[in-house]
Amino acid sequence: MTPDELKEHLKQVKYPGFSRDIVSFGLVRSAALVDGTARVSLAITTSDPKVPLHLKREVDQCLRALPGVQATAIDIAVTAPKSPTPAPAAGGAGAPPGIKHSIAIASGKGGVGKSTFAVNLACALAQLASAAGRPGRIGLMDCDIYGPSVPLMMGLQGRPEVDGDSLVPMERHGVKVMSMGFLVDENTPVVWRGPMIMKTIQQFVQNVRWGELDVLLVDLPPGTGDAQLSLVQTLPLDGAVLVTTPQPAATNVARKGGLMFQKVNVPLLGVAENMSWFVDPAGQRHALFGSGGGLLTAEKLGTILLGQVPLIGAIREGGDAGLPIVVSTPQSPAADTFRTIAQALLDRLAQPRAWPGRKLQALTPIAASLSSFPASISCMTSTAQEPATNREFVKQSSLYQEFLAEREEILKHKWLESERLGYDIGFERALLDWIRKHRESWRAARRQQVAAHAGAAEKRA
Fold first, then answer.
1. In 32-52, which positions are buried (b, 16+ CB within 10 angstroms) versus exposed (e)?
2. How far apart are the C-alpha atoms of 19 and 316, rounded to whole Å?
3. Other CB atoms closer than 10 Å to residue 6's CB: what's the count?
4. Fewer Cβ atoms within 10 Å of its own Cβ: the N or the C terminal residue of the chain?
5. Closest by alpha carbon to 178, among 198, 146, 205, 147?
């Protein structure tokens, strides 16, 4: 069996959380069958220790299904995502220093106005930041490698400056911008395979001097492929916003994009519905692409509808002229809509989360539900009694019931599964911390209960 035949068979192995295989991602360095032993070498970039273990298990199963394979030898070279400095920034481990929040703008399907939305949202965030006395704190990273349109919509031309080993982002309308459109000629198509795209995304994150940013928006290309995988591996995302038009042809694909983010533990901050309606000269609304699709998508993904953007010619004209409507006509209803969505996004980012989804990758979950609480509590309440008795004792406590009530109230909100898991972890830690602080009172109460049972038993005797 030739190396090419082995690689063809390895296309059955998908990278965790994605529909693409490890061969098309360029992760297979070599493959050979020598004396009945299939030898495969992989090279991956990840900070998640579970990924190489999962891949090794899947590759082993795939190879052993081949005739003539008696044993396997799988070598996986793991490279951690490069970080500019050892100290993590506020946005999370691996984020460039100074970036407080990073948000992906995704659509799943092309043609829904995602880049137009991202540009106007960035300008709206810049206006809000400037009003709060923090100008120049918004960034926009255009990761649409094949069809970068952000430079045109932002009215930017030329090449970014180079300072040492770093690119200096260009700036306009209060937004710092980096795009592939700055680095290639206007009439030169980008014909790249996956590894080149992944390398470019990593360089946009690690080798661009973004400075101090409150929010970095990342305009992703449609789909769930190389760019999305590379971004998730390189930049810890605080969340993602899905952009869709109302019709099922767009919402069905957008929902798949949302499920992809859930699989890689990126919280969904909300859904934005674009081209929601058209208003004719008589003032009548017309739902040209249907209605209700954005809200339905948000409900199915367990998140919120951030807002609805109407279909207005001025939005398109502003993009073509390099003057987003938020900048050219700041008092228009469409500009107000973008600012409302921007404020809703900031409010979502400000909501406290016990353990955000992006940090779960570095945790070994203690428990996914309260079913494991009694087992871990029993060893702390009393070492002299049977665990079953301790479990009942803990469940009967008023504090335990208060914790349960609080948890149920919070989980009524439509969080992602990863966020629910994160809250459960934080919930268990809070409960165990309380027990550690009140261990003696628990033991005294337990001794009183045991003595009462013993007295009752003596009377019966």
1. ebeeeebbbebebbbbbeebb
2. 33
3. 22
4. C
5. 205
Q: What angle do CA 45, 178, 90 make, to 5 degrees?
A: 60
179, 148 Cβ separation under 8 angstroms? yes
The single residue listed with the structure tokens 């946009």 is 204
State the Cα–Cα distance between residues 415 and 68, nearest whole angstrom: 49
Whats the size of the chain, residue-wise?
461
Q: In sequence order, which residues have a C-beta less than 8 Å from that of residue 327 and are 6 or more positions away?
A: 123, 173, 318
- Rounded Cα distance between 127 and 175, Å, is 10
Among residues 124, 314, 328, which one has the least CA distance to residue 217? 124
Contact 261, 230 (CB under 8 A): no
Residue 417 in contact with residue 262, Cβ under 8 Å?
yes
Eight-state DSSP code of residue 61: H
Phi, psi of 374 (to 5 degrees): -60, -35
For residue 159, how many other CB atoms are within 10 A of its CB? 9
Q: How are beta strands 37-45 and 71-79 bridged, if at all?
A: parallel
- Going by their DSSP bridges, the two strands 99-106 and 213-219 should be labelled as parallel
Per residue in 193-235, pLDDT (tens digit) is: 656 666 777 778 888 899 999 999 998 877 666 666 667 667 7
Q: Kindly give the parts of the chain with pLDDT less than 50.
A: 83-93, 354-393, 413-419, 421-422, 425
Which of 356, 205, 345, 354 lies closest to 267, judged by CA? 356
Terminal Cα distance for the chain, rounded: 81
| Eight-state DSSP code of residue 362 | G
Cα 54 from Cα 62, distance rounded (Å): 12
| Structure token digits, residue 5 | 């035949």
**pTM of the predicted model as reported, rounded to 2 decimal places:** 0.58
Concatenating the DSSP letter of every residue in 93-108 gives TTSPTTEEEEEEEE-S
Cα dist from 92 to 102, 126, 237, 258, 358, whole Å: 10, 22, 8, 21, 8
Give the bridge partners for 242, in sequence order. 106, 271
The C-alpha atoms of residue 175 and residue 336 are separated, in whole angstroms, by 18
Contact 197, 26 (CB under 8 A): no
